[in-house]
Every structure is written in structure tokens, then in C-alpha cells.
Design brief:
With 129 residues, the chain is of the alpha+beta class. The chain has one domain (4-121). Helices cover 17% and strands 40% of the residues. The protein has helices at residues 4-11, 108-121, and strands at 18-26, 29-36, 41-42, 49-50, 53-66, 69-81, 91-93. The chain is globular, with a radius of gyration of 17 Å. The protein starts with a helix and ends in an 8-residue tail after the last helix. Bound molecules: zinc ion.
Length: 129
């Protein structure tokens, strides 16, 4: 017997850093619903670690397709306070290595695939996914 988390972790190692709560398909789209594991995250400006939670919210990320099915990730992330009194940043959103980057609506894998397609097509219309 293989747990869903184990299978996803093998197929997509970037999910090892989160807890996958749910996976389902709807209208031909694979939805993955993970959340971060808690603990500390570092402020992007001063790198001071923090676990002081400001709030939580859901980030929607487009991922690369699986078996020709588009994938959407609904990742629950925390917004944390930076408790370093010398830092100008008051709060920041935790990032998940291999899954998110600041202001990104796609996973790094999806972004790389899109970049390759854009370069290959050199400005011509791309495929619809
Ligand atoms: Zn800071």
C-alpha cells in the first residue's frame, strides 16, 4: 500500500516539503491541495527566522501537466512577521523550495516549460493547455 503523499513525493519531489491534504480531478483538471508544514521561515530581506504568524491564505499555482491533464495547486501558506527590529520589512510570505517563488503564479517547473515553449516558438502562438 502506497500513501498518496508518498506517491506524489516520488513523482514530484517538490511536494516533499508540504503536506498534501487532497488530490482530485474536476472537469479534466488535477487539483492538488497542500499546505506548508509550519516551523520557521526566513525573512527575504534580513534572513531572520520567524514562526510568528500574521495570517494564512491560499495561493493558486499552475503546475506542469500530468498525463496531459492540467494541474492546479491550491497551496495554503503563512504570512509571517519579521521580528528583527533592525529590518524594514514587517511581514513576508513563506516560500516552498521547488514549488513557489515570490509573486509567481506558476511552479518553477511550469515556468521552465513555458520558457522553453516560448523560445522554441519564437513569438508564434503556442499550444493551448
Ligand atoms: Zn526581516
Amino acid at each position: 500500500m502506497v500513501r498518496c503523499d508518498d506517491l506524489i513525493g516520488v513523482l514530484s519531489p517538490q511536494f516533499r516539503a508540504v503536506l498534501v491534504e487532497r488530490v482530485f480531478t474536476e472537469c479534466g483538471v488535477v487539483h492538488i491541495v497542500p499546505r506548508t508544514l509550519g516551523g520557521t521561515a526566513s525573512c527575504p530581506d534580513c534572513e531572520f527566522p520567524s514562526s510568528h504568524v500574521h495570517s494564512c491564505y491560499e495561493r493558486r499555482l499552475d503546475d506542469s501537466p500530468v498525463s496531459d491533464q492540467p494541474v492546479v495547486i491550491a497551496l495554503s501558506v503563512r504570512r509571517l512577521y519579521c521580528d528583527n527590529s533592525l529590518c524594514g520589512r514587517r511581514a513576508f510570505v513563506e516560500q516552498v523550495a521547488g514549488l513557489t517563488f515570490r509573486y509567481g503564479g506558476r511552479t518553477p517547473v511550469s515556468r521552465r516549460v513555458l520558457a522553453v515553449v516560448a523560445v522554441a516558438l519564437a513569438g508564434q502562438a503556442g499550444p493551448v493547455w
